[in-house]
Amino acid sequence: MNNITKEKDLEVNHEIKAKEVRVIDVDGKQLGIMPLKEALRLAQEKQLDLVKVAANAKPPVCKIMDYGKYKYEMSKKEKEARKNQKVINIKEIRMSPNIETHDFMVRVKSALRFLEDGNKVKVTIKFRGREIAHSQLGEEVLKRFAESVKDKGEVEKPPTIEGRNMIMMLAPKQNNLSKE
Questions:
Q1: What's the pLDDT tens digit per position in 121-131?
Q2: Fewer Cβ in 10 A, N or C end of the chain?
């Protein structure tokens, strides 16, 4: 049995099963412990709802409030919280160990744009055939790449070989500074 009550699990009016409840008024003033029928009558007189806010207490605590308005305000707060969340995506850039200078610079520009947008960048070097025997060439390319984007991002995960690929992760600098 789950003891934690959430907004969606709140018992309202006739859903409340307790015989006696501690009642809190709309203004937050305690009205004391009374039978459930008496509490429901008080709420109906004020044309409001009786909502169980603390089910674990002895006796349970109920508050007289406008439940519809309460649910609306909770959904607004949830939306606001979701709106303020920062979503970080991982963008991938693929290269080969013998990439030409111009192609390399195009990849650097893309990475800088991704880092400015606040995304992480996964730089992958794919080795084909016997290129895997010269993995140091791929590592040099990744180090050169990290050096080219050091103004906007920093190495989060250094170059590592995974299968026939060498992978390095870059993270935007301003995110790392705000975490510290």
A1: 999 999 999 98
A2: N
Q: What is the pLDDT of residues 26-45, one digit of tens each?
A: 888 888 888 888 888 888 88
Strand partners, 171: 154
The confidence band for 96, taking pLDDT boundaries of 50, 70 and 90, is: very high
pLDDT at 75 exceeding the cut of 70: yes
> What 3-state class would DSSP assign to 49?
strand
What DSSP character marks residue 12?
A: B
Quick one: tokens of 54?
């603390």
| Cα atoms in the 13 Å half-sphere on the side-chain side of 172 | 17
The predicted structure's pLDDT at residue 109: 95
Task: Give yes or no for a contact between 160 and 141, defined as CB atoms under 8 angstroms apart.
Answer: no
Sequence-separated (6 or more) residues with CB below 8 Å from residue 13: 40, 43, 49, 50
| 144-154 exposure pattern, b = at least 16 Cβ within 10 A, e = fewer | ebbebbeebbb
Peptide bond just before 59 cis, omega within 30 deg: yes
Integer Cα distance of 123 and 137 in angstroms: 15
